[in-house]
Amino acid sequence: MSAPRIAWALTGSGHYIEECLEFMLTLDNVDLYLSQAGEEVLKMYGIELKSLKDTIPVYRDKAASAPPVGLFYKGYYHTLIMAPTTSNTVAKCVLGIADSLVTNLYSQAGKCRINSIVYPCDIAPTMETTAPGHRKVMVYPRPIDLEATAKLRHFPYTQVVDSVDALKIAVNQRLTSLL
Per-domain residue ranges for the chain? Predict the structure, then answer.
């Protein structure tokens, strides 16, 4: 078996999606996992799925049982990164719901004691984000979404980050710790 890899999951959040993907593409040994909403968001932001597939392995949410999650049990991945992550996915992870490819990845990573780094889209009561068309907009996450993010911070083997810069630092620290 080759050296363990990173599983990078993309959900339906556009929160700094271009910056997250740009960083992801600088890393070696990464597989991209897309939720159905993640695929839709790529289109909304003008990001071509084909160009990603030409660069890295891409797994899409096309099966009810999310078969690729079995790779966690084979030691194929050392880290799961979910960036950016919707409030819906965060809420499901907090409640233990694993009914999609991405929520299954998080569930199985936790069961295998594999570290996860999560960049939620809802991290503060008032935030600036990028909408399709490179427009900056203000958003105001609901208290329930902020509460779910706060709860996720206390999950074992989970590190929640609040910015793309913090994501880069966390991933680089994780990679350094594996050397």
Answer: 5-177
CATH homologous superfamily for 5-177?
Flavin prenyltransferase-like (3.40.50.1950)
Taken in order 22, 16, 59, 47, is the CA torsion positive or negative? Answer: negative
In sequence order, the 6+-apart residues with CB closer than 8 A to the CB of 120 are: 84, 85, 87, 90, 149, 152, 160
Residues 53-87 pLDDT 10s? 999 999 988 766 667 788 889 999 999 999 999 99
Q: How far apart are CA 40 and CA 61, in angstroms?
A: 12
CA 117 vs CA 64, 131, 158, 159, 164: distances in Å: 24, 23, 6, 5, 12
Q: Is 9 exposed, middle or buried (0-12, 13-18, 19+ CB in 10 A)?
A: buried
- Average pLDDT, integer, range 126-133: 91
Look up tokens 């990573």; give the residue: 109
- And the tokens for 40? 């839709």
pTM over 0.85: yes
